[in-house]
Amino acid sequence: MEIIQNDLDGVVLIKPNLFKDDRGYFFESYNSIDFNEKLNAKIDFIQDNESMSNFGTLRGFHLQLPPHSQSKLVRVTSGKVQDVVIDLRPYSEYFGNYKSYILSDENKHQLFIPKGFAHAFLVLSKSAIFNYKVDYQYTPNYDTGLIWNDADINVDWEIDKSVINLSAKDLLLPNFKNYKKKNFQL
Questions:
Q1: Active site residues
Q2: How far is the C-alpha of 71 from the C-alpha of 115, rounded, in Å?
Q3: Model confidence over 5-22: pLDDT tens digits?
Q4: How many other β-carbons are positioned within 10 Å of the β-carbon of residue 27?
Q5: Collapsed DSSP state (helix, strand, coil) of residue 25
Q6: In the β-sheet with 80-87, what is the strand arrangement from edge to edge?
Q7: Radius of gyration (Cα) for the chain, nearest Å?
Q8: Closest CA to 110 of 23, 7, 18, 33
Q9: 8 A C-beta contact, residue 56 and residue 142
Q10: Which of 56, 61, 59, 58 shows the shortest CA–CA distance to 147?
Q11: How far apart are CA 101 and CA 14, in angstroms?
Q12: pLDDT reported for residue 184
């Protein structure tokens, strides 16, 4: 696999080695030894999750606060999504910055999202199946996030905002200013 670092320290795009022939393709989607060696880390994923969503569905921005933070390894097995991460590590030089990626069943890219980042994805195809590994169980009392259309973060979404479909829970997430006030003494 090829690891591509980016301008948000810790987030990496992963391009798997794809082997194609006239029968189809094969690739190793996850190998804990290779993964941890290439990231110089010790991540122990404990759970795999999958969701299916229709066009325009936006799930996020979600994260869990310490001491129950989660790292994630995400990929799309059917369809296409815009995947967005926001650095919410309070002492990071990138605090409040976001980065957007296109993940699809065609490009087979994966994204590693370390602890301290809010995460969302928006379905760009008719539907999408989204898979992710986490290294800590869901802990409702530490679950939080940011509103999808925060004016300070100002994410450049790939589709018209009028067709975006959100859950009732995601519509109630705080904006960036209120998130900072509640969670940090900056």
A1: 62, 132
A2: 5
A3: 777 888 999 998 899 999
A4: 12
A5: strand
A6: 98-104, 80-87, 117-123, 58-64, 143-145
A7: 16
A8: 18
A9: no
A10: 61
A11: 11
A12: 65
- Name the stretches of the chain with pLDDT < 50: 186
Q: What is the rounded distance in angstroms from the CA atom of residue 86 to the CA atom of residue 6?
A: 13
The pTM of the full predicted model, rounded to 2 decimals, is: 0.93
Write out the DSSP string of 60-88: EEEEE-TTS---EEEEEEESEEEEEEEE-
Provide the 3-class DSSP secondary structure of residue 109: coil
Beta partners for residue 48, in sequence order: 133
The predicted structure's pLDDT at residue 7: 73
Please report, as a single letter, which amino acid is at residue 60: G
Distance CA 111, CA 12 (A): 6
Asked if residues 101 and 111 have their Cβ atoms less than 8 Å apart, the reply is yes
Using DSSP's 3-state secondary structure scheme, residue 24 falls into: strand
